Write the structure tokens for this entry.
Amino acid sequence: MTPGPGRRLIPAYLVTGGRTVPAGPALDRLAVLIRTDKGLPPGAGTEQHRLCELLEPGALTVVECAAHLELPVSATVFLATDLVASGHLRGRPPIPRAGEIDRSLVERLLVGLRSLH
């Protein structure tokens, strides 16, 4: 059976090297990944290289990386967690939702700014 368009030649579970536990605490799927200056070791897999190359111009969430790599989010969490544990990536917790703004504080700020003019 030949793979159809968009179908992976290598099953996603092989990306993890057959392991069931990542090298560190699992990242949140909305964690922001940032590449460090540390080069990958020679034994690094293709998917690890692809993930690091993807993050070269900037930061992306784990979910965005999964979409670009065409991997399941769970496999991408695994890869990213390993790379964070080895110091090749930095993982930042997801940005929390903004709370509701105190309207009276904003109004006082506007009054203060107008008085400066």
